[in-house]
Amino acid sequence: MNALVALCHFCELHGPRTLFCTEAVHPPSPSPPQPGPVIPGDRDREADREGEGLTMRANSSATQRADMCEGCRSLPASHPGFVSVDSETGIRYLSHQHPRQQQLFSVVRQACVRSLSCEVCPGREGPIFFGDEQHGFVFSHTFFIKDSLARGFQRWYSIVVVAMDRIYLINSWPFLLRHLRLTIQSLQNTALKVFDSEQCVCPQRAVRMNSAFSPAVFPHQRSGNAARSLTSLTQHPNLWASLHSSFSWLLKACGSRLTEKLLEGAPTEDTLVLIERQTEQEEEMSGWDGAEGGGSNPQPSQSESVQAKDFQFDDGRQEDLLGPKFKSLRHLRQVLGASDFRQLAWHVLMGNQVIWRGADPGLIQSAFNVLKALLPVGCVRAVPYSPHYEEAYRCNFLGLSPDVPIPAHVSSSEFSMLVDVLNVERGCVNPVSDDDILSLYQFNISSANTQPTDKGPTLLNKIEVALSNGNLSVEVVSLCLLCLKEEWMNKVKVLFKFSKVDGRGKEDTQKVLALLGATGPGEEDNVRLLKFWMTGLSKLYKSHLMTACRLN
């Protein structure tokens, strides 16, 4: 992560000061060799020059550090600082009281002053974001540390994360907040123990109440202890080494958490929905962490648990599942047969609840993993394996153990489909491969639906053509399915804009359906599919259309 983490302190004698700073130094990119003679020793001196920068910076600021009080100083002037090397990337994490470069020094200095003076949140303790393009953007978290000898019995600190990428820093807000709070709480708890022990020995409140107050000698009335170091407040012998480890890990983990990906054209609806889900999950985790820090221990509701399972299901990988499993839609079609597969795919595309009941959760989840490729991400709500029935409004993919009964109103509904996975009884025969699913299981498909599924929707007809074409590989079929989904999602967007946003009548909507190619054979199925897929549109797209409509 191209950022810098610093611990700042508001000194009672000198104002805002930078105490400790950790920065990431990337390895230099290899340059082509230049023609000419190689002078012995030049390469060694060039390699050592960057490594000596930290010590040179510490020695050059020795004069300034002599004017510092104990509370403004972290490491001694002769201390070389801390260095950690990431063996995977070659990035070095350097920590000292100030950054190595003069330009970064002024940026961090300004961030320190602003975080402890004007840029504070209500209550003077908590996170805040500020900055500009010239001086960088800052995520700042201010907090208090208990001190029995300070004014108000506490000192004011802040941890700032400085970066030039505003979007990256804002997207990292939940992650930074969650982990910086852990560091801050650790410092506060350690200092609180020292504070309580000092108060037990000599209660300072009573001493101050009984002593005469003189403004001229107020800083000296506490025997010169107006500036105590953070090491003294916490009694932590390896405080700065511990902070170096925490800040270095934070820079590495935050940089690895978000990666850049080249997108050809605008992001798809699936990409937007995944981003929204990840953001919502991080906000919920951050909220629970904050509530736990306040002393409460909230338990997520049942609906929240289902949503969390759904998000985990979306991130599931086929290779992580053990035992027999379906590898692709074509494999599932071969096992079930063309007729049963079409009936199953029809229910999936219509948004009906698809229930798989069996004793092998890995097999059931693999079936869901391949079936969800038929739908936009926003339309997938899954409970991979549950000991009890879940209603259709909570999930359209439901896995059940074999002894779970299906409610009567569900088994008689035309909007649900049940796949019973039964173990095949075999005698003493040779063991079969996990890929031979038919020799291990029997699949019984049942549904109360009486509507024919052989006419439409048009999307299903095209999918079956691709699956039945043996000349197309599984990878080509996946890309074909992706293109078909994008084509129909564009139709969904047009219909949503026309019917929901503009509020056109039925006659005009019918003309739009004809224009989209959704009329003719299987028209009823096409319309049902389009209406169901509207629920998979991202919140960002819906709000954008609604806002544009109000502005017009």
TrEMBL record:
> Where is the protein situated, by its record's location annotation?
Cell projection, Cilium; Cytoplasm, Cytoskeleton, Microtubule organizing center, Centrosome; Cytoplasm, Cytoskeleton, Spindle; Cytoplasm, Cytosol
Which superkingdom, per the lineage? Eukaryota
Q: Which GO CC terms are listed, alphabetically?
A: centrosome; cilium; cytosol; lysosomal membrane; nucleus; spindle
A molecular function annotated in GO for this UniProt entry is: GTPase activator activity
Give the UniProt keywords, A-Z.
Cell projection, Cytoplasm, Cytoskeleton, GTPase activation, Lysosome, Membrane, Nucleus
What positions does the domain UDENN FLCN/SMCR8-type occupy?
73-538
Q: A Pfam family name for this chain? A: Folliculin
In this chain, the stretch annotated as Disordered covers: 25-62, 283-309
Write out the biased-composition intervals (Basic and acidic residues): 41-52
Which residue windows does the record flag with biased composition (Polar residues)? 297-306
Q: Where is the composition biased (Pro residues)?
A: 27-38
**Main localization of the protein described in the UniProt heading:** other
Q: Which GO terms describe its biological process?
A: negative regulation of transcription by RNA polymerase II; positive regulation of TORC1 signaling; positive regulation of transforming growth factor beta receptor signaling pathway
- Family stated for the protein in its record: Belongs to the folliculin family.
PANTHER family, sorted: FOLLICULIN, FOLLICULIN FAMILY MEMBER
Protein name per its UniProtKB record:
Folliculin
Instruction: Identify the species of origin.
Output: Sinocyclocheilus grahami
